[in-house]
Amino acid sequence: MHEHPTDEPCFASFPPAVLRPAELTAFSRGGGARTIPLVSRAVGAEVFLTGQTLFDGGAGIALHTHNCPESVTILEGDAVVEIDGTEHHVTRFDTTYVPAGTPHRFRNASATEPMRILWIYATVDATRTIVETGDTARVDAEHHKAAAAGRD
Prior knowledge:
mainly beta, 12 strands, 7% helix
């Protein structure tokens, strides 16, 4: 753990920013899920990543793990989150904490209404490993790949 004197900011090089999801481009995660990166290296982050993922009715994402802890807050709608084999119903403002290496996934509990989550990774170097395939990629590399493809 790093200790900093109380009069020195931790990672002072991150410039102030106001990020407005409605003005940012979402990229497709496939299967009716779209992600909007928020706090990332692209805006100067050095410590953590945040963003939102929007799920169409019935949409979900694959079972996966990360190399760091993740916290997710439901901003809109109802979801089913599977964490380490156990499903939980979560709704607006419910928040999860998932330790590194723990398999988890979210899906929209409604077949028709949208669902939106806010995610926070405990490092800018966060990776996602899909359980079924074992494929691992940096979370922020997914954002850059979508930008290079022209986003949808």
